[in-house]
């Protein structure tokens, strides 16, 4: 009798799972039937917002429904992350994640969501580059020179970023760890303040997104010492990487990736992945992204999922070695 009950339970469970899969497939066939919102965890005009809006326009045309960008800044992007993690998994709410998503995962003692398991990854969509910049009067023009200057005056050099716990801060901390220099971090509120501090000599150098500082570099107000990406960045090919400047293995890449809430049917995830691939294959879209400092790098859902885990592990290691405590 007991074996019979177990058998019936197993059959019931099998039927239930099959019904769910069939329901997901049916929903995906008609999806989308209404506007899709992509939630951005930062304000309008920032890198994540710009990239999302560039992609949203062709995606709307390809999917046949409006793709609306909704800004929900706050708590390093976690306000938006929580909103999406707790939304319906019907394919009508998505998160445009960025590097800050994985930094926040280690910066905070606890979050109201799991930074990996509460999401259904769709795709990486683009990368951006961080650079080390200094004022025009800074004595060094490259990373070896910066390291020499720092070691000649331990604790005296200062570097600026857009804030404590930002990707820029962690990138600067990684450079400190890999080179053994003793420098002081100075957080500022926003990129304009960082650029001003570098230009005016309030700090010695800064870590910032390449496209955010390129105008000041071209005007001669500041200079780029190196780029943080593993390979030279196409828009500034004459700038060496930090790795080739004597810090082997150093690599930080800014990234943007789209994800739905966990449990979103695979068929919808795959359909959105195809829409992104088709949108990002358009020359006009690629050019607009390049002009905004982002280069297309579309991936599979599985690759985005693996990327989230590896990035969290990397930043947790940086934080541990720095002796930093989660907030």
Protein described:
Helix 6 (about 165-180) links the parallel strand 5 (about 160) and strand 6. This protein has about 325 residues and is an alpha/beta fold. It contains 11 helices and 10 strands. Strands 1, 2, 3, 4, 5, 6, 7, 8, 9 and 10 form a 10-stranded mixed sheet that branches.
Rg computed from alpha carbons, rounded to a whole number of angstroms: 22 Å
The class by helix and strand makeup works out as alpha/beta
Number of helices: 11
- Distance from N terminus to C terminus (CA atoms, Å) equals 56 Å
Strand percent estimate: 15-25%
Number of strands: 10
Task: Give the ordered list of helices and strands.
Answer: HEHEHEHEHEHEHEHEEHHEH
| Largest beta-sheet details | 10 strands, mixed
Secondary structure elements and their pairing?
Elements: H1 2-30, E1 36-40, H2 47-63, E2 67-71, H3 78-85, E3 93-98, H4 99-107, E4 119-135, H5 143-152, E5 158-161, H6 167-179, E6 184-187, H7 191-200, E7 205-209, H8 210-219, E8 222-227, E9 253-261, H9 266-280, H10 283-291, E10 294-296, H11 301-322
Parallel strand pairs: 1-2, 1-3, 5-6, 5-7
Antiparallel strand pairs: 3-9, 4-7, 4-8, 4-9, 4-10
Features:
single chain, about 325 residues, alpha/beta, 10-stranded mixed sheet, 11 helices, 10 strands
Please give a quick description of this structure.
By secondary structure, the chain is an alpha/beta fold. It has helices spanning 2-30, 47-63, 78-85, 99-107, 143-152, 167-179, 191-200, 210-219, 266-280, 283-291, 301-322, and strands at residues 36-40, 67-71, 93-98, 119-135, 158-161, 184-187, 205-209, 222-227, 253-261, 294-296.
């Amino acid at each position: 009798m007991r074996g019979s009950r177990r058998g019936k339970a197993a059959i019931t469970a099998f039927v239930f799972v099959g019904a769910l899969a069939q329901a997901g497939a049916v929903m995906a066939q008609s999806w989308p039937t209404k506007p899709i919102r992509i939630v951005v965890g930062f304000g309008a005009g920032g890198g994540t917002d710009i990239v999302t809006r560039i992609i949203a326009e062709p995606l709307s045309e390809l999917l046949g429904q409006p793709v609306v960008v909704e800004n929900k800044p706050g708590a390093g992007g976690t306000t938006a992350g929580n909103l999406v993690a707790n939304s319906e998994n019907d394919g009508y709410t998505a998160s445009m994640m960025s590097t800050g998503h994985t930094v926040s995962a280690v910066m905070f003692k606890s979050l109201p969501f799991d930074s990996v398991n509460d999401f259904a990854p769709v795709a990486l969509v683009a990368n951006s580059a961080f650079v080390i910049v200094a004022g025009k009067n800074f004595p060094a023009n490259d990373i070896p020179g910066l390291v020499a200057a720092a070691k000649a005056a331990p604790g005296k050099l200062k570097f600026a970023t857009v804030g404590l716990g930002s990707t820029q801060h962690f990138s600067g901390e990684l450079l400190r760890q890999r080179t053994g220099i003793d420098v002081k971090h100075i957080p500022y509120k926003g990129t304009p303040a960082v650029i001003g501090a570098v230009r005016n000599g309030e700090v010695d150098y800064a870590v910032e997104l390449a496209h955010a500082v390129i105008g000041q570099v071209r005007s001669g107000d500041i200079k780029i010492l190196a780029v943080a990406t593993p390979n030279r960045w196409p828009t500034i090919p004459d700038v060496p990487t930090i790795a080739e400047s004597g810090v082997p293995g150093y690599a930080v890449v800014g990234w943007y990736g789209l994800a739905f809430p966990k449990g979103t049917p695979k068929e919808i995830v795959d359909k959105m992945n195809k829409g992104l691939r088709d949108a990002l294959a358009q020359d006009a879209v690629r050019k607009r992204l390049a002009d905004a400092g982002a280069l297309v790098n579309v991936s599979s859902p599985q690759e985005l999922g693996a990327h989230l885990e590896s990035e969290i592990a990397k930043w947790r290691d940086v934080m541990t070695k720095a002796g930093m405590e989660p907030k």
